[in-house]
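From the shared-data thread, chain only:
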Amino acid sequence: MSTVWLRPKGNHFHAHDEVSVDVKVDGQTLDLNDWNCVVLDGEGHELPVDAADSLIIFVPEKDGLYTVVAHQRDSNVAGKIVLVVGHDFEPNMAQAGLPVEVFPLRLGYFTVGSDAEFIVLKDKEPYSNGILHAVHEDGTSAVFELAEDGTVVLTINQAGDWLFTAILKDELDDTVYSCSYTIPGVTEEEMHLHDH
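Structure, as tokens:
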């Protein structure tokens, strides 16, 4: 099953400025013609996007949380990332409505030693019979079992980009679903960001 990395170009975003997110599948650059690319604001409203080459490009209208999704057409493979835009906003985050979704319970900038918290949803409900695969950009990996309520808490132990993937098999028809969530730019030390 494929993994979908979504990596933003930059680490600090402002309303009304263009945001670009690079999409790679199994480490390879791809053409997004066979992909549904969607950006949702915190209330679940879809924003206009330009998906060209391997980039999803959008302009956030206001400060908030923006969910960026790439879902392969005619497939059950998807990837997502939630980007923080600006500073002054209600922390609302939209579900993408994917058959299987890795949903972050903690957002922000991560450092080595930070805990990442997720819930895995199947058809928008917590899924408890699964695992979450964690892969670092250098290939280091680990597997974590989901708790009864579909959640998992794990400690990030290395700087760089991380990908968290849930792979679930439907017991009725053997369909396999995959959803990946990217945490980019984990640092050794806490970042101090200033308004520009």
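The first strand starts at residue 4 and ends at 8.
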